[in-house]
Backbone:
């Protein structure tokens, strides 16, 4: 210290520069110490001096004493750490030589009075890096020469400050963010459209206790939800208030109704959640007496695209599915009920082969157009007993009313674009009567049925040697109308959705010259379905159609699609088997199964409505997986020139579309028996046992099961066997024709009638009389009276 004081007071030589050591030949003394880092922390209180904390990190190059000026004289020191001394000029650091190895750290805390209004300044030791930290709440502070709190080798710490002036509004709480999704099922009821919706709101940010729905045009809106406090409707908005703010998910179920009249286009009654982002799904169901036809809106998707929580909402069968926020528009297409009776007979044909001794064989054929009737009640003339009964060429089990009449089970006529198809109901009888005289009148009574007849035809083959007015020479027994068998096969193929075979059979019918109106009716359906098969493959959009389809066309598809349920189940099974085979590495089986899935998609897709995407999606998925299977097959080197064999389904002896495989029904010899008398109490009777004098019938026997055929549409079945078994349990019923199905009998007995269908191949030598009547009401048994005379020996 003494040396330093003497050096400060001792004047340097005149030729030496200020600060130069005496005798140093004008060279500056070497720098032995310096500050590498400095940190200045300043706190500016509302009143009083500034609180200042100064920190330096010193480093030396050679061991030597050093005296370094730290801060000016304005700082009032409160604490100091390190070799700090004070002098008139301020604070100094006196560093010994021993500290040169590890350096030195100095920390000084004190107060500094402002130099003026909002200003303060202090001389400081410069450092290589100088950091300034100012804590001044509510003040805008400026540090001279500072950039982002750093100084550049400054020897003065100068601050100015002023009260902060702010014009910003206080921060508002964050706005809640809500997303929503909804699934709506729409179906029709008489005079109204009904919808059921599941709406789900997800609160992404914040908490919400009010959720809104857009219910424009909806009536009778009902809401169910857990935690719901109340609902309020204001115009087209329905507000749902919860008991407590919701931070997660809120779900509500809404049922709504919208009255409709006529068949115009209307928006589907689908409530829409109000949110910042909305996802919507729709399913369209059927109607009791019509169909709900989509006419515009979002894109069609397969039903699998509907999320799990949005399924099962419709109370009717789902026809189509849709996805998108665009409102769905629909048109209610009503099926107009057929005016008049539920069952109509377009043509009735009675063929009588009479013998001179009085016995007659009768064949009655009714061409029936049936909409919803279960039985046809037939009451023949007295003394006639039934022999055989067939419906659409197949033997059927009929029920006796106990007084000679029978109930014949009916099938529903096939619906076509041009109307209902007719089907033949054929019964054969044996009638006993008096022997024919040389001259007189003979009455032939057509069996009465409980359905109106539009036209009736009589063909009476007189005994040999007998003639009547209008009689002509009998030609050879008339064969079945040309093309009738092929037409029945075409109808049968259509019923099992084999449309290609049905169309080919219709060509055969036309080439035979048939004039049956059923040909054009059935062709109208095939035109719809086969044309759809050509057009299938493009993405469906209800807006692509230039004009809406008629109801009959859509119903044709709907009825055909309803018969593909078994195929759809089989397709699902094949798809799962293909995935399992592919996962296990069995590419041969996977390829075969996928080809079946694609083939089924082509067959089933023909029957879908144009907006349906079910089979399109299944086909695309199967083709995509089939491509991967073929790549793996090619890569593994297992591909063969002929391809893998189609896997057989173990345990199956039924073709997907055809009859049970491995069963044969043998013919039974013709036989007839009298009607049994009814019994008072139920009796357990073996209906298949023959009468005492009858040949024993052959039971249906099971042949060895055949290997299941590939899943394809089977060929048309062969014609029915020439012999059939008809059992007629006897019922106690009124003799008048009834329009209702017979109730369960209180007593019943078994009757076996086994006979071949009447072919009129018996020797006939007499003339034939043909008469036509028209417009016969239900329940009437018209009688044909023939005046006759013998022309020779009637024998």
Residues:
């Amino acid at each position: 210290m003494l040396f330093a004081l003497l050096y400060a007071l001792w004047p340097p030589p005149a030729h030496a520069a200020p600060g130069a050591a005496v005798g140093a030949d004008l060279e500056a003394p070497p720098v032995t110490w310096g500050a590498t880092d400095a940190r200045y922390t300043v706190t500016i209180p509302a009143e009083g001096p500034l609180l200042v904390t100064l920190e330096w990190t010193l480093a030396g190059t050679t061991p030597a004493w050093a005296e370094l000026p730290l801060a000016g004289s304005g700082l009032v020191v409160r604490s100091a750490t390190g070799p700090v001394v004070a002098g008139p000029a301020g604070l100094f650091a006196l560093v010994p030589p021993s500290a040169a190895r590890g350096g030195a750290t100095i920390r000084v805390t004190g107060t500094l009075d402002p130099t003026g209004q909002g200003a303060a300044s202090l001389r400081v030791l410069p450092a290589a890096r100088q950091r300034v930290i100012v804590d001044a709440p509510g003040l805008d502070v400026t540090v001279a020469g500072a950039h982002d709190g750093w100084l550049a080798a400054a020897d003065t710490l100068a601050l100015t400050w002023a009260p902060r002036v702010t014009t910003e509004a206080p921060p508002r709480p964050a706005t809640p963010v809500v997303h929503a999704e909804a699934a709506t099922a729409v179906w029709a009821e008489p005079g109204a459209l009904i919808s059921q919706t599941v709406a789900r709101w997800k609160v992404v940010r914040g908490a919400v206790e009010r959720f809104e729905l857009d219910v424009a045009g909806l009536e009778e809106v009902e809401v169910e939800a857990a935690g719901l406090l109340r609902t309020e409707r204001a115009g087209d908005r329905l507000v749902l208030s919860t008991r407590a703010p919701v931070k997660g998910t809120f779900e509500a179920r809404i049922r709504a109704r919208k009255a409709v009249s006529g068949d115009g286009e209307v928006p589907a009654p689908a409530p829409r959640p109000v949110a910042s982002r909305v996802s919507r799904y729709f399913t369209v169901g059927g109607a009791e007496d019509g169909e709900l036809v989509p006419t515009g809106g979002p894109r069609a998707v397969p039903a699998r695209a509907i999320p799990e929580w949005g399924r099962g909402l419709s109370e009717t069968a789902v026809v189509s599915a849709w996805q998108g926020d665009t409102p769905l528009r629909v048109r209610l297409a009503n099926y107009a009920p057929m005016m008049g009776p539920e069952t109509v007979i377009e043509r009735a044909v009675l063929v009588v082969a009479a013998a001179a001794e009085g016995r007659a064989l009768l064949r009655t054929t009714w061409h029936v157009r049936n909409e919803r009737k279960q039985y046809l009640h037939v009451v023949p003339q007295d003394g006639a007993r039934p022999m055989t009964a067939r419906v659409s060429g197949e033997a059927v089990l009929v029920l006796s009313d106990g007084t000679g009449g029978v109930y014949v089970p009916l099938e529903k006529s096939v619906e076509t674009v041009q109307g209902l198809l007719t089907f033949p109901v054929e019964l054969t009888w044996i009638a006993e009567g008096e022997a024919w005289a040389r001259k007189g009148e003979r009455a032939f009574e057509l069996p009465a049925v409980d359905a109106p007849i539009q036209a009736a035809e009589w063909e009476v083959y007189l005994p040999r040697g007998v003639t009547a007015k209008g009689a002509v020479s009998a030609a050879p027994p008339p064969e079945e109308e040309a093309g009738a068998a092929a037409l029945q096969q075409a109808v049968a193929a259509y019923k099992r959705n084999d449309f290609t075979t049905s169309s080919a059979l219709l060509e055969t019918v036309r080439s035979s010259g048939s004039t049956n109106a059923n040909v054009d009716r059935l062709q109208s359906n095939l035109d719809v379905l086969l044309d759809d098969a050509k057009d299938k493959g493009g993405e469906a959009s209800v807006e692509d159609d230039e004009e809406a389809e008629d109801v009959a066309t859509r119903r044709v598809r709907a009825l055909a699609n309803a018969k593909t349920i078994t195929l759809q189940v089989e397709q699902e099974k094949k798809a799962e088997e293909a995935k399992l085979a592919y996962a296990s590495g069995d590419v041969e089986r996977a390829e075969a199964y996928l080809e079946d899935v694609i083939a089924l998609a082509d067959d089933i897709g023909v029957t879908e409505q144009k907006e349906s995407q079910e089979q399109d999606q299944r086909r695309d998925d199967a083709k995509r997986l089939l491509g991967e299977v073929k790549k793996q097959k090619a890569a593994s080197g297992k591909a063969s020139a002929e391809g893998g064999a189609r896997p057989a389904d173990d345990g199956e002896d039924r073709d997907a579309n055809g009859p049970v495989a491995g069963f044969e029904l043998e013919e039974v010899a013709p036989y007839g028996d009298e009607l049994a008398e009814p019994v008072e109490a139920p009796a357990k009777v073996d209906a298949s046992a023959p009468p005492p004098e009858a040949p024993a019938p052959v039971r249906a026997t099971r042949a060895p099961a055949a290997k299941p055929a590939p899943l394809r549409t089977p060929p048309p079945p062969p014609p029915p066997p020439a012999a059939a078994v008809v059992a007629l349990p006897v019922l106690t019923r009124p003799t008048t024709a009834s329009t209702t199905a017979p109730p369960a009998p209180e007593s019943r007995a078994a009757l076996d009638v086994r006979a071949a269908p009447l072919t009129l191949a018996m020797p006939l030598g007499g003339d034939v009389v043909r008469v036509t009547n028209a417009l016969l009401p239900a329940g009437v048994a018209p009688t044909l009276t023939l005046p006759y005379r013998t022309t020779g020996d009637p024998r």
Notes: The longest helix spans residues 614-636. The CA atoms of residues 187 and 315 lie 8 Å apart.
